[in-house]
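A brief tutorial aside. Many learners find it easier to grasp structure tokens once they have seen a single protein encoded end to end. The record that follows does exactly this for F-box/LRR-repeat protein 15/At3g58940/PEG3-like LRR domain-containing protein. Read the sequence first, then the structure, and try to relate runs of similar tokens to stretches of the chain.
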Amino acid sequence: MLMAVKRNVQKLHLEIGDYYDLAFELPRRLFNCKSLRKLELVSAGVAEHRKIILPKSMCLPQLEALALVKLSISSVELENLISSCPLLNQLHMFKCDIQAGNQQNLVIDSPSLQTFALTDTPRSFRLEDCIVDNITKLSAPNLESFVFKGFMTQNYCLENFSFLDTVSINMRLGENETTERYSTLLAEEKEVFAGRMMKYLGAFYNARILILSPGLMEVLSQAPDLLNCQRLRFCNLRRIDLEMWFTSSSLHSLAYLFEISPIISHLFLTSKKTRITEVGDNWEVGLSFPSL
């Protein structure tokens, strides 16, 4: 690694294997490399998350793309790493375990960020081995592409993204998704999850392409007065890709998306199998709009 830095490396892919149960401390000179433009840190072993330790002082003035895969890292170190990259425009975090330490919230703040993908992060951060309520805040005013795959039990604060073009959200309750699991949710759980889904959609008001998961469509219909709420408008939305169960809940959510998307031109539906037959006889009426 140090030889690569000495020779002004621009792209570096580093795989960390299994070294017992020890944390892997990365050299300070690597994270103060003036020439590095792309950095990929990957846990290649069988361990679920490989613990890494970053230097306290970091400066990557040319770094544009950063990928972290199956790593365990403290929230403070992650925030310091992102803030040390003023030109960062691509950030991908896959199956990373973010340790809260002495703070409950994680803040990802990057004015230059254009593409962000957060995939299969843990359900919550850990504070002294206890599961605590936490918020992940994303502040990226120039974001163009947002990809998220995770759990509804997590809470996110997503600020308005005026330049956002493509959004893909896959939110679920657990690994094995079924309509039965959603039908047995408590009323309070449905209300909380539906409120979060509305909040997330509100942050993506300017998107042109929207890709949504079955679980999101199920809980979205639980938002109070959903079909009568016209405050949210997708004025630029052209295309919606949906994987959904054809239940009454999902169809009501679909009707709502039609209502708030006046210029949509492409709709792609993928049907997921379900044993529940709760569509009813009047679903066609619910999806009939003069504007379609």
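Self-check: Confidence is low (pLDDT under 50) at residues 123-132. If you spotted this yourself, you are ready for the next section.
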